[in-house]
From TrEMBL:
Annotated CDD domains: homeodomain
Keyword field contains Oxidoreductase: no
DNA-binding region, residues: 127-186
Residue intervals of the Homeobox domain: 125-185
Region (Disordered): 77-132
Gene Ontology molecular function terms on file: DNA-binding transcription factor activity, RNA polymerase II-specific; sequence-specific DNA binding
Protein name listed in UniProt: Homeobox domain-containing protein
Family: Belongs to the HD-ZIP homeobox family. Class II subfamily.
PROSITE patterns reported in the protein's UniProt record: HOMEOBOX_1, HOMEOBOX_2
Length: 239
DNA sequence: GGGAGTGCCCGTTTTACGTCA
DNA sequence: TATGACGTAAAACGGGCACTC
């Protein structure tokens, strides 16, 4: 496994029941969980025009990315598509349809040619989809990027893909899966937190119940006498 | 208002790889 | 030691939704 669970940098600090506010969830060293996950990264500054939501960027991207299916591996991929051969589980209109229209562009195409691993994977003539195991270096770089920003704008994606010698689609998929793993991890942490909350509340409830019983035991005579109209403080009942 | 294009999320499938009998 | 079954992590896929133009 390229990324161990520990590599996610998870740490959980719990302090119960004195101060629930002391709970700290730190999923990753530089990635603040939940609330910040959706924030746009500062790394955007690296790429000017980098706000993925900006009009210029989107328009840029749209014209930028068109016409090439990044899922298609370089070289032989073209032949396969034209021959109507795709992966066993994908139709021509599936991946190549949805992604090709939005991610194809000259730069990516050129970059894909440089993807030696992809080429070698496909050159064996096997038409089934080959899953590429990322190298440790590739995973490390992706992790570093993810720590900086857990989403990518198109330019960042291209730059990263180029740097790693991967297809932009692979980088995109990696980030999607990485976000999913982070979310799953956060859910596990949240569940653990709630579980501990429940345990502490149960214990607190048990303690309070016991305390109530003790108080009732102490005050029982008074309570009974107060409700007893025949009671007289100096009256000694028959035994 | 609605269609097209795009990005992201989510659930699922497929594949690579480690473990164990 | 070889090998096949099995489990798991992760890469990849497909559909849906939201958003923008």
């Amino acid at each position: 496994m390229a990324v161990e669970k520990e590599d996610l940098g998870l740490s959980l600090s719990l302090s119960f029941p004195q101060n629930y506010n002391s709970l700290q969830l730190n999923l990753m060293p530089s990635l603040v969980p939940s609330s910040v996950i959706s924030q746009k990264p500062s790394w955007n500054d690296t790429f000017h025009s980098s706000d993925p939501n900006s009009d210029s960027c989107r328009a840029d991207t749209r014209s930028f990315l068109r016409g090439i299916d990044v899922n298609r591996l370089p070289s032989t991929a073209d032949c396969e598509e034209e021959a109507g051969v795709s992966s066993p589980n994908s139709t021509i209109s599936s991946v190549s349809g949805k992604r090709s229209e939005r991610e194809g562009n000259g730069e990516e195409h050129e970059m894909e040619r440089d993807c030696s691993r992809g080429i070698s994977d496909e050159e064996d003539g096997d038409t089934s989809r080959k899953k590429l195991r990322l190298s440790k270096d590739q995973s490390a770089i992706l992790e570093e990027s993810f720590k900086e920003h857990n989403t990518l704008n198109p330019k960042q994606k291209l730059a990263l893909a180029k740097q790693l010698g991967l297809r932009p689609r692979q980088v995109e998929v990696w980030f999607q899966n990485r976000r999913a793993r982070t979310k799953l991890k956060q859910t596990e942490v949240d569940c653990e937190f709630l579980k501990r909350c429940c345990e502490n509340l149960t214990e607190e409830n048990r303690r309070l119940q016991k305390e109530v019983q003790e108080l009732r035991a102490l005050k029982l005579p008074t309570v009974l006498h107060a409700n007893d109209p025949t009671y007289h403080p100096h009256h000694v009942p028959f035994m």
